[in-house]
Amino acid sequence: PREKPPFITFVLGGPGSGKGTQCAKIVETFGFTHLSAGDLLRKEISSNSENGAMILNMIKEGKIVPSDMTVKLIQRAIESSENDKFLIDGFPRSEENRQTYERIVGEEPNVVLFFDCPEEEMVKRVLSRNQGRVDDNIDTMRKRLEVFTSLNLPVINYYSEKGKLYKIRAVGTEDEIFEQVHPIFAAFEV
Ligand code: UP5
Ligand code: MG
User: Fold this and answer.
1) Which residue minimizes the CA distance to atom 9 of ligand 1?
2) Which amino acid residue places its CA nearest to atom 46 of ligand 1?
3) CATH code at 140?
4) Of 23, 47, 57, 128, which has the maximum CB count within 10 A?
5) Residue of minimum CA distance from atom 12 in ligand 1
6) pLDDT per residue over 66-86, tens digit each?
7) What is the ipTM of this complex?
């Protein structure tokens, strides 16, 4: 058990906005542990867990997997790590996700990043990724964008009102975007 709660950053943004790419850079520079909620769920699918088939169907449809499942995977990953700073990438995706996390984990995030990227750029990036993701096709991408706009934007507004949100203009090269990210963590000295 930890003496004090870890430093938690939620990393939000639409599908293909560059969350994973920028998280890798934050890990390199600031020593965070990167927990992608989507990766944790995809690992559940490939480990043939009892919920794998259901999770796969939800991801194919661009839908949000039941909150308690995702929160438990995140909580387990935090507890099994020695690190005291985490990037939680792609979570919470809805108010219900957010409330379930707060109820189970009992802590608010320290910082929330929002990678703000135009839809047409996100579509272009996702459709040219070519890494075999079952949700990287135009039909599922449309559904992911719809879910993002209707369910994730309210979460982003919630943290904005709380003064925890750092909005980043997620266009340009990876390095140009990281130039906006770097000073945020440099200021926190974590
Ligand atoms: N790329 C990155 N930066 C670029 C730049 N500046 N210029 C040009 N290209 C750039 O980037 C996407 C692609 O763009 C890559 O090819 C990259 O090289 C390039 P990436 O960094 O992967 O973007 P990211 O925002 O991480 O996109 P991702 O597709 O992973 O976002 P999603 O939020 O859609 O995916 P996630 O894995 O988080 O979730 C997938 C599904 O899992 C969800 O739809 C949902 O069904 C389920 N899910 C839940 O149910 N609950 C959860 O809590 C989480 C997920
Ligand atoms: Mg990602």
Assistant:
1) 125
2) 59
3) 3.40.50.300
4) 23
5) 16
6) 999 999 999 999 999 999 999
7) 0.99
Give 34-48 pLDDT, tens digit per residue: 999 999 999 999 999
Q: Is the CB of residue 174 below 6 angstroms from any atom belonging to ligand 1?
A: yes
Q: Residue 187: what pLDDT?
A: 93
Domain, as residue range, for 99: 7-188
Beta-sheet strand order (sheet of 7-13): 33-36, 85-89, 7-13, 111-116, 165-169
Counting the structural domains of the chain, the total is: 1
pLDDT digits (tens, 9 = 90+) for 134-175: 999 999 999 999 999 999 999 999 999 999 999 999 999 999
Q: Which atom of ligand 1 is nearest to the CA of 140?
A: 44
Contact of 135 with 144, CB cutoff 8 Å: yes
Strand pairing category for 85-89 and 111-116 = unpaired
DSSP readout, 141-188? Answer: HHHHHHHIIIIIHHHHHHHHHTT-EEEEE--S-HHHHHHHHHHHHHHH
Please work out whether the CB of residue 70 comes within 6 Å of at least one atom of ligand 1: yes
